[in-house]
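Journal club prep — side note

Before the paper discussion, L.F. wants everyone to see what a predicted structure for a comparable chain looks like in token form. Sequence:
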Amino acid sequence: MYEYHEILGSEKPIYRTKPPGLKTISEIPSGEFLIDYEIVGYLEYEENGKKLYDPLYAIVRDES
């Protein structure tokens, strides 16, 4: 999880609800390697009155 100043300037979208097909780190099965994913956005949520941001991942497709 990140605070806003840590993602500022990343140019990745911020979502308030998780779009279908994207995963948080806790949703990626342990058998799948994080290297196969890339951060494509951030999920905004509130914890203890503070806005925080979880990275959202999508599978990287090798087009070669």
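L.F.'s comment for the group: The CA atoms of residues 21 and 58 lie 7 Å apart. Keep this in mind when we get to the figures.
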